[in-house]
Amino acid sequence: MAHWELFSHPADIGIRGVGPTREAAFAQAAIALTAVITDPKKVEPREAVNVVCQEDDDELLFMKWLAALLYEMDTRKMLFSRFEIQPIAGGLRATIWGEPVDVDKHEPAVEVKAATYAGLKVEKDQAGNWLAQCIVDV
Fold first, then answer.
1. Which position has the higher pLDDT, 91 or 9?
2. Is residue 79 classed exposed, middle or buried when 0-12, 13-18 and 19+ CB atoms within 10 A define those classes?
3. What is the CATH number of the domain that holds 67?
């Protein structure tokens, strides 16, 4: 079953997404990224933004995906809570939904500065589930 979670790290925070496909795991990791900042349930999926990431390597694609999300959050001053991802040749295409940051409503806890290569892993387990994880710098 697809899910997201945070995991402890001495200085920063780990995010992890698990799902039946690579794209589902990436989407769950994106929810975990939002959860570092605020409760994802507080973020209404009111505005759609399209994102395209190109990279043949799964781990590097995951890093580009997270960097793209952080870029959209920063430049649009938005938080996102819904993610639909489709595989494309050499990468992924996604539509992400969210709303502008409202400090009173979202009560942001921290700012995620970047996704790091620490703890980076994108893999399919023996049961066929995909896992995507890394440490984010807060």
1. 91
2. buried
3. 3.55.10.10
